[in-house]
Design brief:
Layout: H1 3-45, H2 55-83, H3 101-105, H4 110-118, H5 122-168
């Protein structure tokens, strides 16, 4: 295996890990959606009998607020911090990569693109691949950190929902 093949395999591995992270985030979204459905059904069944000042009512309202905030924050992390598409952030203004779609899309001439690919040498290929590996590694690292956060908040929201359900049953 030569350097370019090894580098390309590394890139493919990182891309697969990004897909895997996105799939896990989709699982978090599915569980959060189910949890949100249960939460809204419980809220719909609440009846405070005009007694909002009892300790149980205040606890239920507080737990409901905490649960709602945790659910919304988990959704926010999953959608805007993990699943949101990202562009490269570490290319300077004069860099141009034949491996980065956004740079290729900025080209206005198909013939010029063909010529660029035809004339690329092994060092330039290796440089393009390693630049892209750097970019997708940063993206993967950010996604994994946010996935960890979303799973943590998902766990807290499940606990909060369970306590909310138990407390709301006594109203």
């Amino acid at each position: 295996m030569d350097k370019n093949e090894f580098t390309l395999e590394s890139f493919k591995n990182i891309q697969e890990l990004i897909k895997f992270t996105d799939q896990k985030s989709s699982g978090v979204l599915a569980v959060t959606g189910l949890e949100l459905t249960v939460f809204l059904n419980c809220i719909d069944k609440l009846d405070f009998h005009k007694n909002y000042s009892s300790i149980l009512s205040i606890a239920t309202i507080t737990l409901g607020g905490v649960t709602g905030v945790l659910l919304i924050y988990t959704l926010y992390i999953s959608v805007f911090k993990i699943l949101r598409p990202r562009l490269a952030n570490h290319y300077s203004g004069h860099d141009f990569s034949l491996f980065y779609f956004n740079h290729l899309a900025s080209m206005t001439d198909k013939t010029g693109m063909f010529d660029q690919f035809k004339n690329v040498d092994d060092d330039k290929m290796l440089r393009n691949l390693t630049d892209q590996i750097f970019e997708v590694s940063k993206i993967l690292n950010a996604k994994i950190n946010e996935l960890h956060n979303s799973m943590t908040f998902l766990f807290y929201s499940i606990i909060s929902l369970a306590i909310f359900i138990l407390v709301s049953r006594f109203i």
